[in-house]
Amino acid sequence: MPAHRASETRELSVEDSLDLLRSVRFGRIAFSRHALPAIRPVWHTVIDGCIVIAADPAMIRTLHRQVVAYEVDTIDHQTHLGRCVIITGIADTVTDKQELAHFQRRLHPETIADSQLILIDPDIITGIEYLGRNGA
Predict the structure, then answer these.
(1) Which of 8, 9, 10, 13 is nearest to 126 (CA)?
(2) pTM attached to this predicted model
(3) Is the pLDDT of residue 56 over 60?
(4) Are 55 and 68 in contact (CB under 8 A)?
(5) Per residue in 91-127, is it b (16+ CB within 10 Å) or e — as a string?
(6) C-alpha distance from residue 41 to each of 83, 89, 132 (Å)
């Protein structure tokens, strides 16, 4: 097991955080299920400034109009360096047929196009970069 490497951190700007969110297609959604914390890995796409994820029916029922956190990262497992972004916002089920068609046309291949969709409109955007010693 590699020794833990001390590193410096720096806060990412909102723009850099959104760039990371757009460049990574896989993240984790944190939500409350039966009054308990839950985290689920999901594929996502950023469309019109919102995070769009495909969800199964059980997840749709759980997430509708709930405040959630969404996390993506590019942390290297060997060096422990990289970037992490956490978005907080309200998850909303896409039910309007025109809106649903709009998003489904723009989904990435990793996102299942025939699934029901959840839309997260970012309210709070925070990001951090883990740098090597002396900022390297």
Answers:
(1) 13
(2) 0.84
(3) yes
(4) no
(5) bbbbeeeeeeeebbeebeeebeeebbbbbbebeebeb
(6) 18, 17, 28
Tokens found for residue 87: 């978005």
Among 55, 35, 122, 59, which Cα is nearest to 87's? 122
**Secondary structure in 3-state letters for 35-89:** CEEEEEEEEEEEECCEEEEEECHHHHHHHCCEEEEEEEECCCCCCCCEEEEEEEE
The pLDDT confidence band at residue 18, using thresholds 50, 70 and 90, is: very high
By CB atoms closer than 10 A (0-12, 13-18, 19+), residue 83 is buried
Closest CA to 115 of 59, 66, 62, 64: 59
The pLDDT of residue 44 is above 50: yes
- What six digits make up the tokens of 18? 């959104």
- No. of helices (H) and no. of strands (E), the chain: 3, 7
Instruction: Return the pLDDT at 1.
Output: 43
Strand partners, 89: 68, 122
Cβ contacts of 18 within 8 Å, gap of 6 or more: 46, 85, 125
